[in-house]
């Protein structure tokens, strides 16, 4: 936390943000949060468990002059890994080779991870700094999901400054196609089983 920050949420609640909160009537509520448990600064068991089910998130960066950019990152569930209480890491797979995220991080390490869990209507926001590791083959190998067919180029290390969750308001509930297919297959198998039992009873 920088010297100008008192609370972890100050990473997002700048003086301008707090002034707007005061004008629109929410500052007292957020001040109460700040003086209580507040936003978390370490990866706890709840966040670690959430990340084991994460297969998709957005990584936000900004250029040296502040131009924002958001890039999707995806992989098998759990591809974003917890290294310690304040460090996340993931293999950065080859893509369209624009390298905007990497260029931004070279000039400005500040970053944000935004994760949506549509099935359970949850979202997690993680503020911090990130850096690209290009020359550590052992680290890259350890980050590569087993059996995943992708070309890893490098590793991104993300140091957590603060994180918070949002209420489920306005989050539409959606389900992954694979999860829906599995549920339908389970249902169909049960229907077939019941139909077979019914046929025996009719004999």
Task: Outline the structure in words.
The protein has 203 residues and is of the alpha+beta class. The protein has three domains: 1-39, no CATH class; 40-172, Pnp Oxidase, Chain A (Roll); 175-203. Helix content is 33%, strand content 29%. It is built from six helices and seven strands; from the N terminus they run H-H-H-E-E-E-E-H-E-E-H-E-H. It has helices at residues 15-24, 27-35, 45-52, 100-107, 137-143, 177-202, and strands spanning 56-62, 68-74, 81-84, 87-93, 110-117, 122-133, 152-165. Strands 2-1-5-6-7-4-3 form a seven-stranded antiparallel sheet. The longest helix has 26 residues, at 177-202. The chain is globular, with a radius of gyration of 22 Å.
Number of domains: 3
Distance between the termini: 75 Å
**Can you tell me the CATH topology of the largest domain?**
Pnp Oxidase, Chain A
**Main CATH class of the largest domain:** Mainly Beta
CATH-defined architecture of the largest domain: Roll
Residue fraction in strands: 25-35%
Total beta strand runs: 7
| Radius of gyration from the alpha-carbon trace, in angstroms | 22 Å
What are the low-pLDDT stretches, counting only 5+ consecutive residues below 50? none
Return the string of H and E elements: HHHEEEEHEEHEH
Helix content: 25-40%
Report the average pLDDT across residues.
92
Biggest sheet, in brief?
Answer: 7 strands, antiparallel
Structural class: alpha+beta
**What gross morphology would you assign?**
globular
């Amino acid at each position: 936390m920088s010297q100008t920050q008192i609370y972890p949420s100050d990473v997002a609640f700048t003086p301008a943000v707090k002034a707007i909160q005061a004008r629109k009537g929410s500052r007292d509520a957020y001040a109460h949060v700040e003086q209580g448990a507040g936003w978390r600064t370490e990866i706890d068991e709840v966040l670690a468990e959430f990340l084991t089910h994460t297969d998709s998130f957005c990584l936000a960066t900004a250029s040296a002059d502040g131009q924002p950019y958001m890039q999707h990152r995806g992989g098998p569930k759990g591809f974003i890994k917890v290294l310690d209480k304040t460090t996340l890491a993931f293999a950065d797979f080859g893509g369209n080779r624009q390298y905007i995220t990497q260029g931004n991080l070279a000039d400005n390490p500040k970053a944000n991870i935004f994760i949506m869990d549509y099935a359970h209507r949850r979202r997690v926001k993680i503020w911090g700094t990130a850096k690209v590791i290009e020359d550590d083959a052992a680290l890259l190998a350890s980050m590569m999901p087993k059996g995943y067919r992708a070309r890893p180029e490098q590793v991104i290390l993300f140091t957590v400054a603060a994180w918070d969750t949002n209420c489920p308001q306005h989050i539409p509930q959606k389900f992954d196609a694979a999860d829906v297919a599995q549920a339908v297959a389970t249902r169909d198998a049960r229907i077939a089983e019941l139909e077979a039992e019914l046929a025996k009873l009719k004999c």
